[in-house]
Design brief:
Blueprint lengths: L7 H15 L9 E5 L2 E6 L2 E5 L12 H11 L13 E5 L5 H8 L3 E6 L2 H11 L5 E5 L1 E2 L4 E7 L18 E8 L1 H8 L4 E6 L5 H6 L2 H4 L2 E7 L10 H10 L3 E7 L2 E7 L3
Amino acid sequence: MTGLDLPLRRRLHLAAHNLGAQLGVKGLKPVYVRRDGDHFIITTEGHEVAVAAALRWMMYRRGWENRLHRLSWQFGVGDRVQVGAGATVIDIGANVGEFSLRQAANGARVFAVEGDPRVFACLSRNVAGHPDITPIPALLWKEETDLTFYSEPNKADSSVFRPDSAEAVRTITLPATTLDRLAEVHGIDRVDFLKCDAEGAEPEVIEGGRNLLMRTRQVAFDTGAERLGQETAADVERLLTGLGFTVTHETRRRRKITFGHRAA
């Protein structure tokens, strides 16, 4: 575990976890982490995933399939949202690609959008060889402009709003674009499902994507308290309702999700 940039207590936690997994404790699965250049490779249940921070091993404590299933369920796929063969999915805030990989396995065509350059490098690596996933390096906003961006991959908190618990923040300036412009560039005419985890910038994503959202059937936005400690559910509901969606809210294992559906 040398070179993992983990404090001692985190290294001990990983060692204790793997001991528990070997003993069959609470369904834990072995997790192995190694450095590979600027990134880290996590191995569990025969799967490898590139991540930007070694601390992300904790997402896989109960294995690869559990991680993908849980993330997909949190955004409503399977009950609130239906994604099947031939569906077009946009994954905004794709991180390292787990949600995109699960929807591609469901038969969808996925556009995986990630704004953090360090994380995007991992996303590209993880979806390489999956022809139904298009990774897109884009920071989405309500207009095309340059924005200050705070990169914090340890807790997947990278955002245009400085994270409160910033353990490893790197401040950079990035060009931002709009969802409508992205759709134009990539030839996206209609969307069956749009998932968005924009770390507090959800209202601005909607404002910059009004045209495409009028041609979108289902949406799920993470509207938790990630905008300087404030939730975005009220603003997202107002904007989505104005675009003709029927809106509901749910909390799914500590994720606050705002769903929007329009009649077929």
